[in-house]
Specification:
Elements: E1 4-6, H1 8-15, H2 22-34, E2 39-42, H3 43-56, H4 59-74, E3 78-81, H5 85-97, H6 105-116, E4 121-124, H7 128-131, E5 135-138
Parallel strand pairs: 1-2, 1-4, 2-3, 4-5
Helix pairs in contact: 1-2, 1-3, 3-4, 5-6
């Protein structure tokens, strides 16, 4: 069964109901849940998401997000890939090479991990994944 990579924008749109992208993220999440699609994200994406939610919303919303993540892990639906020193180095190589793009290091680490695991589809809104040849759903 195909695995879908989940990026920061998707997590934020799912947990923040007032986010303008919440309706499309929620609809996509429901489709993936119905199909029992395995999900993958990274510890860098988790850090980026928690930091954004904490700074723009509040501590309680971060804890609610963590509960969602833990439930998905316990249900066997989500795997978190931890960025190793080797993956981080490869992410920095991409970051250096694409100096004309506004990639974050977290983006670059996501590209490396998704490619290594032969994942083509990304659940998110960041068009940088399109630049790197991924399928982005729902996209903008």
């Amino acid at each position: 069964m195909r695995t879908v990579f989940v990026d920061t924008g998707a997590w934020i749109a799912l947990i923040v109901r007032q986010d303008q992208l919440h309706p499309s993220a929620a609809a996509r999440a429901r489709r993936l849940a119905r199909a029992l699609t395995p999900l993958l994200t990274t510890n860098y994406v988790m850090l980026e998401t928690c930091t954004y939610i904490r700074y723009h919303y509040n501590h309680q919303k971060v804890l609610a997000f963590d509960t969602v993540i833990q439930n998905l892990i316990q249900a066997g639906r989500l795997t978190i890939a931890w960025v190793t020193e080797e993956v981080h180095g490869r992410a920095l190589d991409i970051f250096r090479e694409y100096d004309d793009q506004l990639f974050s290091i977290a983006d670059c680490a996501s590209f490396v991990i998704a490619r290594d695991r032969k994942i083509r589809e990304v659940f998110g809104f960041d068009r940088h994944f399109l630049t790197m040849g991924f399928i982005l759903k729902p996209g903008r």
